[in-house]
Amino acid sequence: MATSAEPAFDGVIFDFFGVLTFNMVEVISYFEEREKLARGTFLRGWASPRGQELFLRLELGEITQTDWNNGFGALIGVPPDNLMARYLHDAFPAYQVLNVARQARSAGIKTAVLSNSLGREPYDPYAGFDLHRSFDEVVFSAEHGVRKPDPAIFGLVLDKLGVPAERCLFVDDSEDNLAAAYKLGITPLLALDEEVAAKRLRGLLGLPAL
Questions:
Q1: pTM score, two decimals?
Q2: Dist. CA 39–CA 41, nearest whole Å
Q3: Spatial separation of the C-alpha atoms in residues 34 and 28, rounded to whole Å
Q4: Who contacts 8 (Cβ-Cβ below 8 Å, separation ≥6)?
Q5: Predicted confidence band at 8 (pLDDT cuts at 50, 70, 90)?
């Protein structure tokens, strides 16, 4: 009698922004159009020393989202009022990837969300995703004072899942984060397109198409 092969992975860790949501390049593009900004304004601000400082400190929980709104708004020349909500207006759920996550969990594979968080007030970008009910573990960087690609945060989520690195898959849209995970023995999967990522995930996890 034929038997199914043992799954190659016991756990999957998902990035949030750009993996469980729409592609962030598109989200930024729509933001610039609405704000009437020249193309590339947001990413130039993000890449500048001040922009990097603001994102890093927000992700570590050292400043509030309102602090970020004020600082980044001044940096790129837009009003600060609820800037995070305006920026993430089009970060809609990536339903195809979310469906694979639910499918994997139903198959007995542990699932986690690992997010370099962007604050929860006054705008909560995670609202409506029901992450704590949909995933076995949810790790937000600001709650632990450590962020990707620091190896410590990968160790933290692996411990919470109870899965060894070599039996875990990590899905992210950042090559730096994926490289850090790979150094720890975690299998990386670059996710830039929702449909492609969902298909590759099902193949790696041995899950049937829905």
A1: 0.94
A2: 6
A3: 10
A4: 204, 205, 206
A5: confident
Residue 207 token pair: 């899950």
Exposure on the CB side of residue 52, measured as CA atoms within 13 A: 4
pLDDT of residue 1: 39
The predicted-structure confidence for 110-134, as pLDDT tens digits, reads as follows: 999 999 999 999 999 999 899 999 9
Model confidence at 67: pLDDT above 50: yes
């899950």: which residue's tokens? 207
Which distant-in-sequence residues (6+ apart) come within 8 Å of 97 by Cβ? Answer: 14, 19, 20, 171, 191, 194, 197, 198, 201
- Please, what's the largest Cα pairwise distance for the chain? 67
